[in-house]
Specification:
The complex is a heterodimer of chains A (311) and B (265). Helix content of chain A is 36%, strand content 26%. Chain A has twelve helices and 13 strands. With 265 residues, chain B is mainly alpha-helical. In chain B, helix 1 packs across helix 6 and helix 4 packs parallel to helix 7. The chains are: A alpha/beta (311), B mainly alpha (265). At the A-B interface, helix 4 of A face helix 1 and helix 5 of B.
Chain lengths: 311, 265
């Protein structure tokens, strides 16, 4: 699109003091965060944390009680060509069952003012060409997911929002989705995906925004929030192992070692195989070797169990 | 706006609803009219005046008005199916100025109603003239007037489609919306006619206004006699047309305004 200027090209999402109340229940409270272009951002939180409500407020489907949500500096409803700026997938199954995949895309291509060649292009891109003329009622979860993505991508948007995209996907589908979203982010697009399962997105996201009960818990790059991974090792030769670890890299980049009680050591800067190999090389005994959860994983686990305890 | 209308036509023509509606138009127009003319109103139970009388002919034409529940039900699908199949979110993502989507739907269904009405009236006229000629019955009204009356019924179908769209937008639940539309038009209105006192309302209800278009009083009169109430006086055809237009406008306004602020969850 020749008319798109460079400044318009990279569109950040900005959420500021966003609040949604349903009667006496506050689904989202004073939420503030930014989603940067060029990376994949995970929007994480337990079920019922307010992720879907927030994403629907971002796209004008739900009106906020207060606060603002903008995309490239404008509220969704004021975007000049919304489907060319933002593509969003909310429901796993949002098709008329009597429509074929091609019918469905043709309806929305017309609505977004896209040429019909774009429909063929997307059917091809998402591997739906063979299923294009079948009615969607017979589609598998993976095919539905891909048709949803095709619909969202009709306008070649710079911002992509996906609500729980991994729901119902098999590992193969998840792998495909991961590669696909990586590529889109690599093209400088803004990608926001929500999930209630951290492990499903941890290999995919660069940044995270974590919410609980409608409030922000943490936001920032994954690597910073997750902290360096730690390995817990127990050995009757703990003192000698600690010394060996500290001396393993004389150039000063040695692993950090701290005592963890009962002959245990917490090691940062060396993974479990590295610790085991080092112990073997020094003929030291190892009774236990565990890779500990990252601080983000631990945080997430706490959120989820906290939710289970209070509901 | 044009691309939204284009989208709605694509949406409608991709399902079987469009073809089904055309089929219904032929069935209720040519089929029903042909059957009534073939049997002859004089052989109905209870017997009615024949096709060679004005009352008999108007009665047969007026009967067509009672098939209005079909286009109304199709209209009720327009908005409610978007909620049922969860495409409403996608639609309003593509067109966040929601009123434009509804205007596009109304335009699409208005044109569809017009086509339905034309096919209904056209096949009915063909069947009536053919069967009457074959049976050698001179019609009780001049051909030009018969055609004009049929055309009025055809146009009324546009109104019913739009009323359906409005009800669907109001209720959103597809089963309930279609149920209410069919229930009211097919059963509700005829039942109202039988209730003394309430039947005074009949002339200003959609059914009464449609009957006024063809000055079809036979059924209402018969019912009044049956239950011993005073005869219902229909509006003039022009007033009936005006009232129907009012109903169409009201339904359209409901359809446009209601979805504007609602949360799509």
């Amino acid at each position: 699109m020749a008319s798109v200027t460079v400044t318009d090209d990279r569109q950040a999402i900005e959420v500021s003091r966003l609040t949604k109340r349903y009667g006496t229940v506050t689904a989202v409270r004073e939420l503030t965060f930014t989603v940067e272009p060029g990376v994949v951002t995970g929007f994480l939180g337990p079920n019922g944390a307010g992720k879907t409500t927030t994403m629907r407020m971002l796209t004008g489907l739900v009106s906020p009680s207060s606060g603002t949500a903008t995309i490239g500096g404008r509220p969704y409803a004021r975007l000049p060509k919304p489907s060319r700026t933002v593509g969003a997938v909310f429901d796993a199954d949002a098709f008329h069952p009597g429509h074929t995949a091609r019918d469905h895309l043709r309806v929305y291509a017309a609505m977004g003012g896209c040429p019909d060649t774009r429909v063929t292009e997307l059917l091809d891109l998402l591997g739906l060409t063979e299923a294009a003329d079948r009615r969607t009622r017979g589609f598998s979860t993976g095919m539905r997911q891909r048709l949803n993505l095709a619909t969202a991508l009709l306008g070649d948007p710079r911002v992509l929002l996906l609500d729980e995209p991994s729901n119902g996907l098999d590992p193969e589908g998840m792998l495909w989705l991961r590669g696909f979203l990586r590529r889109l982010a690599g093209e400088g697009r803004t990608v926001l995906i929500s999930s209630h399962v951290l492990s499903e997105v941890q290999q995919l996201v660069d940044d995270v925004v974590v919410i609980r009960r409608g409030e922000l818990v943490a936001a920032g790059p994954w690597s910073r929030l997750a902290g360096p991974p730690a390995v817990l090792v127990r050995s009757p030769d703990a003192d000698r192992l600690a010394a060996a670890l500290r001396d393993s890299r004389p150039d000063g980049d040695a692993p950090q070692v701290e005592a963890a009680g009962h002959g245990g050591l917490r090691v940062r800067g060396l993974d479990a195989p590295g610790v085991a190999d080092l112990a073997a090389a020094h003929q030291l005994r190892v009774h236990e070797l565990v890779t500990e959860k990252s601080s983000l994983e631990q945080l997430f686990l706490d959120l989820t169990s906290d939710k289970a305890a209070t509901s | 706006m044009n691309h939204l209308i284009k989208a709605e036509f694509r949406r409608l023509s991709a399902t079987r609803v469009g073809t089904g509606l055309l089929l219904a138009a032929v069935l209720f127009g040519g089929g029903l009219m042909g059957a009534m003319a073939l049997v002859g109103p004089e052989n109905f139970d209870p017997p009615m005046p024949g096709l060679d009388t004005e009352a008999g002919l108007r009665a047969v034409l007026g009967m067509l008005g009672y098939t209005a529940f079909v286009p109304a039900a199709v209209g009720a699908l327009a908005v409610s199916s978007e909620y049922r199949h969860r495409t409403a979110a996608v639609t309003f993502l593509f067109a966040p100025r929601r009123w434009q989507v509804l205007v596009a739907k109304l335009a699409t269904y208005g044109v569809t109603g017009l086509v339905y009405g034309l096919v209904l009236a056209g096949t009915a006229a063909a069947a009536l003239f053919t069967v009457a000629a074959a049976r050698g019955i001179p019609l009780g009204l001049p051909s030009g007037l018969v055609l004009a009356l049929l055309a009025r019924i055809g146009l009324a179908m546009v109104v019913y489609l739009l009323i359906g769209v409005g009800v669907g937008a109001l209720l959103r639940n597809q089963v309930v919306a279609v149920g209410v539309v069919i229930g009211y038009l097919y059963l509700g209105e005829p039942l109202l006619m039988m209730i003394p006192g309430v039947n005074a309302l009949y002339p200003v209800l959609p059914g009464g206004a449609t009957a006024a278009l063809t000055d079809f009083t036979y059924l209402a009169d018969a019912m009044s006699q049956e239950v011993g109430s005073t005869a219902v006086r229909l509006l003039s055809p022009a007033a009936g047309a005006l009232l129907l237009t009012g109903y169409a406008l009201a339904a359209s306004l409901i359809a446009i305004i209601l979805p504007m602020r609602r949360d799509i969850t």
